[in-house]
Each structure stands twice: as C-alpha cells, then as structure tokens.
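G.,

No rush on this.
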Amino acid sequence: MQTYMTRGTCSRQILFEVTDDMTVKNVKFIGGCSGNLQAVARLVDGKPVDEVISTLKGIKCRSNTSCGDQLALALEDYKQKLNSPEQKKK
C-alpha cells in the first residue's frame, strides 16, 4: 500500500496500490468529500496508471489543485520513485 500526503485539498492523504502491470487498485482518500471521493476511487480502480494520470491531472478545485489532481500527482510520484536509480538496483 502506497501513502501520499496531499497538499491544498480537503483530503489529507491518499492510500493506493499499483499492481505489477501498472494498474491502480484500492484507492482510499482520507478526509475530503466522502461520496465524491468514493466515486473517484471506484472509477479509477482497475485502470492503467497512465490513464488515471492523464484523466485527472490538472483538474482544479481550490488552491489550484483538487483531490483528483492530487491522485494524479501521487501516481506520478510513485512512477518516479519506481524508476529511480536506487529502486532499479533492487
């Protein structure tokens, strides 16, 4: 399970998993608008990471970001860490 601390949104944290084939699973937002964020989590479940990023990145709510945008940033952060030189050594 991955954890991402959000910035500029009502939700404080996003928990998610990425499968070996780069599919998003088990997204859970901590805080925020419960109904809307449950819907976002269900809609992205089973989708490829890159599809979720391209769909949600840039959506604005307050503070020039949104919970969906923060999920896209969390997934980009995950991909960047996955491709880091330290991770590739493992």
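When you get to it, here's the other one too:
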Amino acid sequence: MKVENGVATAWLTDLSGRREEVHLTPDSPGQYSLDLTARPQTTYLLTLTTADGKQKTVRLLKQSDIFVR
C-alpha cells in the first residue's frame, strides 16, 4: 500500500463492526504491509490516518492467505 504522508494510525474493521488498531510494517518510504495470516477469511476495512490528519479507507478481502484489494 502506498501512502504519501506517514501513517499515524491504522484501524482494521471486520464485517461485524469489530474495530481494532493495528500496526503496519514499513517496507520502504511510503510503502506499508499488514500481516493478516492469523485472521479469519472475510472482508475488512482498513482506515489509515496520515500524519497531516487525512484519512483513507480501503477494502481488503482475505481469501485463504491470498489478498485482493
């Protein structure tokens, strides 16, 4: 996932509405990854808040250990 400004917070929400703050792994400048291998197969919403206060939400679909964005 590419983020221009640094990520201040990341929240993962599942279909039941359960929301949890998660920690992203920085891969390179502006690139982050999130490990979902221990989580069940479902659709998630990942909401990122950047250091300058902007928010972006992306939908993640976990199927087995293959992810579709």
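The mean pLDDT is 85. The CA atoms of residues 1 and 30 lie 8 Å apart.

Enjoy the weekend,
O.
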